[in-house]
Amino acid sequence: HEELNKLNLEMKTEIEERKKCDQELRESEKKYRSLFENSPIGIATLDKERNILDFNDAMLEISGYTREDMGTIANTSEYYYNPEDKIRVSSELSKNGFVNEMEVRFKRKDGTPYDALLSMRPMEIEGQSLWHAMIQDISNRKRAEDELQKSRREWEGIFQAIGHPTLILDNHHRLIHANAATEKATGKPETDLIGKRCYEIFHNTDGPPE
């Protein structure tokens, strides 16, 4: 009778521990699913051939596709705007086994391109080898960077077009940029003038003229 009670107690303890583990697993899955669904970054789960198994709403918002659309375009290779990007990603995965914030260009449903940062990491679920992919749309950032570069080119064009020597100095009055007229007046390339003070450039003295 005592042995039977001991056996029943062990079975009860094992069942309770199993229930506790199952509950913790369900809670963990619930938390992961919440993060997956509510993330502002596009997240997808892919199989070894990079077919899309699951994805969150952010993926749809970024790409303009519907869930029905995603079901008809299973493989991620069809979402690349530039075939070269697909080759780069494959090469990186073969070399390192993962991709970390690689800049690629994907296409939206209407065919227009958008720039994104792609990260891919291997993972295993229930013995199945999968890929965890994250896509962050950086189109607005790229557009701002392009506009900034355009403004800089326009400013440089105006700066170089000024017909008389024009210098940009730092807080210590050392030259950091000069236009073409300065090079012409001094007979020296800008690289030879960088770091010098204006009186060194035009008066060849160690101090300002008195």
* Total beta-strand segments: 7
Q: What topology, given as strand order, has the largest sheet?
A: 2-1-5-4-3
Strand content: 15-25%
Query: Could you name the ranges where pLDDT drops below 50 across 5 or more consecutive residues?
Result: none
Proportion in helices: 40-55%
The structural class is: alpha+beta
What is the alpha-carbon Rg in Å?
31 Å
Distance between the termini: 113 Å
Estimate the mean pLDDT confidence. 84
What order do the SSEs take from the amino end to the carboxyl end, as H and E?
HEEHHHEEEHEEHHH
Biggest beta-sheet profile: 5 strands, antiparallel
**Overall shape:** elongated
User: Helical segment tally?
Assistant: 8
Primary descriptors:
210 residues, alpha+beta, 7 strands, elongated
Written description of the protein model:
By secondary structure, the chain is of the alpha+beta class. It is 49% helix and 23% strand. It contains eight helices and seven strands. The strands form two sheets. The chain has a five-stranded antiparallel beta sheet, with helices on both faces.
Question: Short description, anyone?
Answer:
It contains 8 helices and 7 strands; from the N terminus they run αββαααβββαββααα. With 210 residues, it is of the alpha+beta class.
Q: What's the arrangement of secondary structure elements?
A:
Elements: H1 2-38, E1 42-46, E2 52-55, H2 57-63, H3 67-72, H4 83-96, E3 99-107, E4 113-125, E5 128-137, H5 139-161, E6 167-169, E7 175-178, H6 180-186, H7 190-193, H8 198-202
Antiparallel strand pairs: 1-2, 1-5, 3-4, 4-5, 6-7
